[in-house]
Amino acid sequence: MSGALDARVVVAHAGVDARIELAPGEVLAVMGPSGAGKTTLLDAIAGLTRLDGGHVSIDGVRLADARQHMPPSRRAIGLLGQDALLFPHMSAAGNIAFAAQSAGSSRDEARAIAEEWMPRIGLPGLGDRRPDRLSGGQRQRVALARALAARPRLLLLDEPFSSLDVLAAAQLREVVRDHLQGTTTIVVSHTLADAEALADRLLILEHGRITQHGTLPEVLESPASDFTAAVAASR
């Protein structure tokens, strides 16, 4: 089942010490300076690294702690990193269809889902192209559609619009916002526009620690650090 889950994360790993609780269907934005530990946090939740301490739990089921480690393939957590990492031997539509089929759709249903996604991400008519015939921005769009088509229980987005121009990023934010309804999500970004368009809450991570969190107005109207003040000033 996708979305609508309760997630509790207490990560103590590689210089990151953070406690996060997500309500079912909530979208949390995480912002912080470079090197703050944002990607490390997502990797720990996804299972790409073992925890030194803390734990990751979803719907009351512990996925990882310092003693146990559930493999990423069993967590039903989707992670879209800053690199597209598409399957090079598959077409753009094939990449998306693979994710949909892995989530339980039949082959025909998966193909139909992929066909629907191509125009939604601004790539009509390019479904047959393999990744090496797509630009970097186009590959990122396909990777984003693949992540969403998999209908993960928890979706992790790490700078999902970083390789897109301003107009394309704005258009895709609308697509993602509509599709995320009911899907519990953490989105890491350096761009306030991503948080404003997608998130219910904003968390500031600095030097591996949470320095502030709350709704966007709460955080931006009363910044607790120079970094948050700079973010607020960028509005």
Please describe the topology of this protein:
Layout: E1 7-13, E2 16-22, E3 27-31, H1 38-46, E4 53-58, E5 61-65, E6 77-80, H2 92-102, H3 107-120, H4 136-149, E7 154-158, H5 166-179, E8 184-188, H6 192-198, E9 201-206, E10 209-214, H7 216-221, H8 226-233
Parallel strand pairs: 3-8, 3-9, 6-7, 7-8
Antiparallel strand pairs: 1-2, 1-4, 4-5, 9-10
Characterise this structure.
There is one protein chain. With about 240 residues, the chain is α/β, with parallel strands linked by helices. It folds into 2 domains: about 1-75 and about 155-235, P-loop containing nucleotide triphosphate hydrolases (Rossmann fold), CATH 3.40.50; about 90-150, no CATH class. Helices cover about 35% and strands about 25% of the residues. It has 8 helices and 10 strands. It has helices at about 40-45, 90-100, 105-120, 135-150, 165-180, 190-200, 215-220, 225-235, and strands at about 5-15, 15-20, 25-30, 55-60, 60-65, 75-80, 155-160, 185-190, 200-205, 210-215. The protein has a 6-stranded mixed β-sheet, sandwiched between helices. Strand 7, helix 5 (about 165-180) and strand 8 form a beta-alpha-beta unit. Helix 2 crosses helix 3 (about 105-120) and helix 3 (about 105-120) packs across helix 4. It is globular and about 50 Å long. GO terms for molecular function: ATP binding.
